C-alpha cells in the first residue's frame, strides 16, 4: 500500500468511530471508486440517509467517493484488516478472494435481466453474498450494474471477428481476461482510474462496461463505438468488514442490513433512469451504438462453460441455468 494511502488512512483514524462526550453516535466509513453522479453512489447515499433515519442518528455512514482511499482492490484489503468499514466492489475482482464469484464474470450466464435478478434474490444468491465472510468480507446487498458491453476507439464491433487483435481493457479478473482472449482480443488489465488516458493515448483500443459507467467516466469522448453485446451481468456488491460487523451490536447490525436492503430498489430505479439517459447522451455526442447478434458472441465463448463441467463453479453455473 502506498505511503499516500497510509497517510490518508491515518488522517481518517478508525473505520468506525464514536463522538466524544455523551453522544453515542457511531460512524462507519464507506469508500468507493465511483463518481458522485453514478447511480450506485446515489444508491449508497440513499442507504446512508435511511440508516440515519431508522437509527435515530445513532449509527451513521460517511461516504468517500471517487477513489479517495485507493483502488478497488486496496479498499477490499482495508476491509479485511478492519481499517475501513465498508466499500462497493464489482463481483469480478472478488473472484480473487472468493472463487465462487467467478460465475458472475463468465459470459452469457444469464438469459436476461429478469433471470439475473431471480438468481440474485434466490437462496443461491444470498449464499454467494455472504460467502466472503471466510475471508473477512461480508456482503450486505447487490446493486444493479447492468450488462457489460464493448466500446472501442476506432473500430465498430459487429461480430467477434472485429475484436481480433484489439487491446481491450478488462477488470483484474482472470475470467474476464479469458473471455476477451477467447473472442480474439488481447485482454489488458488496467485500473479504472487510468483508463481514460489509456484510451486517449492508444495504450488500449477499447474496454467493456455498462452504459452509465461509459457515460459518467466520459470514455465516450475518446471511444466512438459502443457495441451492446451484453456479454456479462456482473453485479456490484456492498461489502462490510467482517471485523467491523462483529463489533456492531445486534441492533446496529439489524439497522445496517435493513438500510442496505431498502436501498436496493432505489438504486435499481436510478440505474434504469441513468442507463436510458447515458445511451441518449453518448449518441448525441457522436457515439455509434451498435446492437449486434449476441448469439455469435455466446457461441464463441461457450467452451468456457464446457470447461467448468465437474467443478464447483460448473455446478453453480448449472444451478443458475436451471432457475
TrEMBL record:
According to the UniProt entry, its GO molecular function terms are: carbohydrate binding
The processes (GO biological process) annotated in the record are: transmembrane transport
What is any one of the record's Gene Ontology cellular component terms? outer membrane-bounded periplasmic space
Q: Which domain of life is it from?
A: Bacteria
Report whether Plastid shows up as a keyword of the record: no
Q: Which organism is it from?
A: Simiduia agarivorans (strain DSM 21679 / JCM 13881 / BCRC 17597 / SA1)
Stated name of the protein: TRAP transporter solute receptor, DctP family protein
Q: Which UniProt keywords apply?
A: Receptor, Signal
Amino acid at each position: 500500500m502506498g505511503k499516500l494511502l497510509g497517510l490518508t488512512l491515518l488522517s481518517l483514524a478508525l473505520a468506525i468511530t464514536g463522538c466524544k462526550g455523551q453522544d453515542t453516535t457511531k460512524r462507519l466509513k464507506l469508500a468507493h471508486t465511483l463518481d458522485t453522479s453514478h447511480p450506485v453512489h446515489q444508491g449508497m447515499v440513499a442507504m446512508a440517509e435511511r440508516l440515519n433515519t431508522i437509527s435515530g442518528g445513532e449509527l451513521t455512514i460517511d461516504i468517500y467517493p471517487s477513489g479517495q482511499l485507493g483502488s478497488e482492490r486496496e479498499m477490499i484489503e482495508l476491509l479485511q484488516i478492519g481499517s475501513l468499514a465498508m466499500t462497493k466492489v464489482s463481483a469480478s475482482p472478488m473472484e480473487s478472494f472468493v472463487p465462487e464469484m467467478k460465475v458472475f464474470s463468465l459470459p452469457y450466464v444469464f438469459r436476461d435481466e429478469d433471470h439475473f435478478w431471480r438468481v440474485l434474490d434466490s437462496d443461491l444468491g444470498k449464499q454467494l453474498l455472504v460467502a466472503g465472510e471466510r475471508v473477512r468480507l461480508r456482503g450486505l446487498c447487490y446493486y444493479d450494474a447492468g450488462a457489460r458491453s464493448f466500446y472501442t476507439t476506432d473500430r465498430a464491433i459487429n461480430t467477434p471477428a472485429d475484436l481480433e487483435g484489439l487491446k481491450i481493457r478488462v477488470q483484474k479478473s482472470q475470467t474476464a481476461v479469458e473471455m476477451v482472449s477467447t473472442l480474439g482480443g488481447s485482454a489488458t488489465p488496467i485500473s479504472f482510474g487510468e483508463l481514460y488516458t489509456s484510451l486517449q493515448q492508444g495504450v488500449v483500443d477499447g474496454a467493456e462496461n455498462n452504459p452509465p459507467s461509459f457515460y459518467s467516466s466520459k470514455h465516450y469522448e475518446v471511444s466512438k463505438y459502443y457495441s451492446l453485446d451484453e456479454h456479462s451481468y456482473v453485479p456490484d456488491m456492498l461489502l462490510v468488514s467482517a471485523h467491523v460487523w462483529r463489533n456492531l451490536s445486534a441492533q446496529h447490525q439489524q439497522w445496517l442490513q435493513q438500510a442496505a436492503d431498502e436501498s436496493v430498489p432505489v438504486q435499481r430505479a436510478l440505474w434504469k433512469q441513468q442507463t436510458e439517459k447515458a445511451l441518449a447522451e453518448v449518441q448525441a455526442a457522436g457515439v455509434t451504438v451498435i446492437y449486434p447478434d449476441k448469439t455469435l458472441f455466446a457461441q464463441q465463448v461457450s467452451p468456457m462453460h464446457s470447461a467448468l463441467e465437474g467443478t464447483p463453479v460448473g455446478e453453480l453455473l448449472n444451478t443458475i441455468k436451471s432457475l
